[in-house]
Specification:
The complex is a heterodimer of chains A (155) and B (145). By secondary structure, chain A is mainly β. Helix content of chain A is 10%, strand content 54%. Chain A has helices at residues 7-14, 73-76, 97-100; strands spanning 2-4, 23-38, 43-50, 54-64, 78-83, 88-89, 95-96, 102-103, 114-122, 126-133, 139-154. In chain A, the strands form two sheets. In chain A, strands 2, 4, 8, 9 and 11 form a five-stranded mixed sheet that branches. Chain A is elongated, with a radius of gyration of 16 Å. Chain B has helices spanning 8-17, 94-97, and strands spanning 4-6, 25-35, 42-49, 55-65, 75-80, 92-93, 110-112, 117-124, 132-142. Chain B starts with a strand and ends with a strand. The chains are: A mainly beta (155), B mainly beta (145). The interface between A and B is large, with 35 and 44 residues.
Chain lengths: 155, 145
């Protein structure tokens, strides 16, 4: 099934994490990890920090990179995302970027953001670890973006 | 695409299948099953096991070949070892049920009990012999009650 995240349902869903009367500002946003250029078979790591005072609901993952020649290497490069607030990984083991995120096929065609099956609530003052192991060729300027909603409690 | 649904369908499924006393908590999760290189015309059985601490709800299936190769007409079947329940009536073409990335045409939500042992059978009809990865995308349901 293709899972959808209607904004009104996200709005209703996030309220379970707050007192019922809380005034919330819910805005779409993206947090990104910049892995840089990853040499063949090398490991890269970055951390996305959710600042204090803001919570994040992640609903999708997207990869972007600079060299189109490495398209095939996104099938062989493995990624894992781990949420520090629960220590729960997103995947049972590191898996190809092409399987766990959407990515740009070439300079002109952009795939839609790969949706998760269910929103993941990531509280403020925590982080998501992004680790990637490259394939047999270099990947230039890899960026992994987490797409979702930022929630700020007002008042 | 067979079915589009809101993520809240998952909440409704959980409400139907778990009691409030069980205090189910849900996290998105993907079960990844690596499949070793398999020669054209041959099959391989890959046993795997779910986490012991959470039930898993399958919402969609994904597939990639690590070399970016097509696997036309190759098939998969997933069987729960204890009950011998099959995911599909018979082995099904990957292109029928998986997308090349994720979120293929799996039509609903399928619950697999925590700790279940399963076997994925991959039959490589043609298209190369390099390794493949399957993903079962869905949610982990942790029960505390």
């Amino acid at each position: 099934m293709r899972i959808q995240f209607p904004p009104s349902e996200i709005d209703a869903w996030v309220r379970q994490f707050y007192v019922p009367t809380a005034a919330l500002l819910i805005q779409p946003t993206t947090y990104k990890a910049e892995l840089g250029t990853i040499a063949a078979n090398a490991n890269a790591y970055d951390q996305i920090t959710i600042p204090d005072g803001v919570d994040f609901v992640c609903i999708g993952v997207q990869a972007d990179f600079d060299n189109v020649n490495s398209l095939g290497d996104l099938f062989g490069a493995n990624m894992q995302l781990t949420d520090s607030s629960t220590e729960n990984p997103f995947f049972s083991q590191a898996a190809p970027i092409a399987l766990t995120s959407s990515f740009i096929w070439d300079s002109s065609i952009t795939d839609a953001v790969q949706a998760l099956s269910y929103p993941r609530f990531i509280p403020g003052n925590s982080s998501i670890a992004v680790s990637v192991t490259g394939d047999s060729a270099q990947i230039d300027l890899l960026t992994i973006s987490l797409v979702g909603f930022k929630i700020r409690k007002l008042g | 695409m067979l079915n589009f649904c809101s993520f809240q369908e998952i909440d409704r499924f959980i409400a139907q299948n778990y009691s409030l006393k069980q205090r189910p908590r849900v996290d998105n999760y993907s079960v990844i099953v690596p499949v070793p290189a398999t020669a054209d015309g041959s099959s391989i059985d890959v046993p795997f096991r779910l986490n012991g601490n959470a039930d898993f709800l399958i919402c969609s299936l994904g597939f990639v070949n690590v070399a970016g190769l097509a696997v036309a007409q190759s098939t998969i079947q997933i069987v729960e070892n204890g009950s011998n329940e099959k995911l599909f009536d018979s082995a099904v073409s990957i292109r029928t049920i998986c997308s090349t990335q994720a979120q293929g045409d799996f039509p609903g939500i399928r619950r697999i009990a925590r700790g279940s042992a399963l076997t994925l059978t991959f039959s490589n009809v043609g298209g190369g012999v390099s390794a493949n990865f399957f993903a079962m995308h869905g949610v982990n349901v942790y029960v505390y009650g």
